[in-house]
Specification:
By secondary structure, this protein is mostly helical. It has a domain of about 55 residues. The protein contains three helices and no strands. Helix 1 packs across helix 2 and helix 2 packs across helix 3. The protein is globular and about 35 Å long.
Amino acid sequence: MDGNHAQGHSAADPGRDDVRHSGWVDRLVELHVLADNGDSAADAAGRRWIAEDADARRVWEEVQRTCDQLRQAPPGE
């Protein structure tokens, strides 16, 4: 890990292909789902995280786009 990120806090190490390895993506997605379903504590935690971590913000936005696409898809697709 580079010296710019604390272990466990950074979204991904430079050059790492599989950012899911550390489990942080799963936790971020969980917070997103909870926040999207009205959990204010999860919403606040997610917003704090993405305010401090550009990689987390990128993933949060990707999850949001995916959710939006799924909501817009006709039933059965």
